[in-house]
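Summary for the funding panel

The consortium committed to producing paired sequence-structure records for every protein in the target list. Below we show the first two records in order, beginning with the earlier of the two.
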Amino acid sequence: MSMTTATISPNPRRADLAPRAAHLGSSGTRSEGAKRLLLVVGAVLIVSGLVHLGVFLVDGGAWAGPVSWRKPAVFGLSLGLFCITLGWILDAFPSSSLRPVTAWPLAVSVGAGSLIETFL
C-alpha cells in the first residue's frame, strides 16, 4: 500500500489565478451598452441645461414665472446628472447580479423619460 502526499504551495501559479483576475477586473460587459446609453443621454441633457443657462444669461428675463429659462436649465442639469449617476451605479454592479434583461429596460426608460421630460 503506497501513500501519496499532496503538497500545498504557498505561492499558487499565475495560470491558476488568471481566470479569477480577469473576472474581478471586468465590469458587466453585457450591460456595457446600457451604461453607455445613460452616459450619452446624461451628457446631452447637461449640454442642453448649460445652453439654456447661457441663453438666460444672454437674453435676461425672469428666472421665475410661467415663461422662464429656469425649467429647461434645471431639468437638463439635474436629469443629466441623474442619468450619469445611474450609469455609474450600473457599472458598479457585478455582471452576475445585473443582467442585460434588467439593465436595458432600466436605461431606456430612464433615458427616454428624462429626454422627454426635459423636451416638454
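The next record, for a separate protein in the list, is shown here:
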Amino acid sequence: MEFFRRVPRIRFMEKRKIWYAISAFIILGSATLLAVRGLNFGIDFTGGVVVEAGYTGPADLQATRDALAAAGLGAAQVQSFGTASDVLVRLPPPPEGQQAQQLTELAVAAIRSVDAGAEIRRTESIGPQVGRELAEKGALAVLMTLLFIAIYLMFRFQWKFSVGAVLAVLHDPFVVLGFFAATQMTFDLIVVSAILAVIGYSLNDTVVVFDRVRERLLSMRKATSLEVMNTAINETLSRTLMTSVTTMIVLVCLLLLGGETMRGFSIALIIGVIIGTYSSIYVAGAAALDLGLSQRDLMPPEKKEELDALP
C-alpha cells in the first residue's frame, strides 16, 4: 500500500535552515520551561497516595476539595478525568508518624461524605524513598538507552549519518519533556516508558531514511548530495506517513478510551510520532547533509586513495 500514487518531488532540504531555526526555538523553549516550571512529578517519583473514585452522578470537585480540607487533607489535588463522574485525588506523602493507609482512609471517608454511593476504584501509595529510587532508575534508563543507541549508530552508519541520527534522537524526547513542563501534566513512570518508545520510533524512522540515502548515494553518482537527500526522503515519505497515520489512529483511540492512567502515555507518544517524523527529515537528514555527506564517504579506503592519486 502506498500513501501517494507517484513518488513526490518535494524539495525538503532547500528550506532546512528555516527548520533549523524552528528546532532551535523549540529546544530553547523546552529548556526554559524545564528550568522555570519543571516537571509535575507523579507519586511514582515524589511518593504519596492516589485515590480514584467514580461518583454516582456528575462530580462536585469543589465540594470534594472542601471535604478533604475538613478532614485535614488540604494539600490534596482533586481533578476530573474520563467522564464527569470520575475523580482522581492525589495526596502528598504522609507526615512523619502517620501511615499512608490512614491518609487513604481519610480520603475515602471524605469522598463518601460528598457522595455516599461513590465507588472507590483504585488506591495506591508509594513512599518517598521508593519514589527517589524510581526517579533515579528512570533517568538512568533513558541515559543508557541514548548511550547504546549512539554506539549502535557508530557501527551501523558512516559517522556523518550517525551524528545526524543522534541529534534527532536527542531532539525528540527533549520536546516531549518541554510539553509536559508547559502543561504541567503528571510526569510518571508510564510517561518515561513512552519517552523510551519515542526514542525507538524516531530512530527507526531515521534509519529507514538513511538506508535509502545510502542506496541512492551509490546509484546516483552524478547527482549532488542535496538531490540525493531529497530523492531518498521523497521515496520513503509514503512509508513514513503510512506508519505515522496508522500509529496515530491507535494512539488517539488509546487517549480517548484508555482512561486517566494511559493519558500521559498516549499524549507523549502522539507528540513523539509527530516530532519524530519531522526530525528524521529536518534534523537527522539536514545535519548529515550540512556535515558534507557525499558519495565519497561510502567509498572503500582503497578507492579513496586511487581518487586522491588522480591528477
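Regarding this second record: Confidence is low (pLDDT under 50) at residues 304-311. The longest helix spans residues 225-257.
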